[in-house]
Design brief:
The chain is mostly helical and 134 residues long. It is 84% helix and 0% strand.
Length: 134
Amino acid sequence: MIHKIAFGIVFFTAIGGALWLGRSSERWTAFALLISALASPLLQENLFFRPELGILLIDGGLLAYLVWLALRSDRFWPIYAAAFQIVGTTIHLASVADSNLWAKAYATAQVFWAYPVLFALLIGTWLEARYRQN
């Protein structure tokens, strides 16, 4: 239960901060993360006992957006966010390769790699807001 509370705090802090203090890159990323978070439970089928293909599609779409943003942005945080998202998306591919992957490990890895993506957005937003103040 504590991990759900911790994730909620980090998630809403990053999203809220990006919407409040961010520029267009941060705001669009906040919307993309929010949509991904809302769509994931709707497309979850197997409770991570088998590959979650619906969540793989969502994570793949988010990865495509973050890579596109990293390639066109003049900021560094999208590079980090995209790199962390690559790892999170690759975990789905590991579950496809080995369907005996322990469900708890699969689910935990998915949540674990969401944190660095959120922290990249949070730190990037903070640095951007600080830069504009100076």
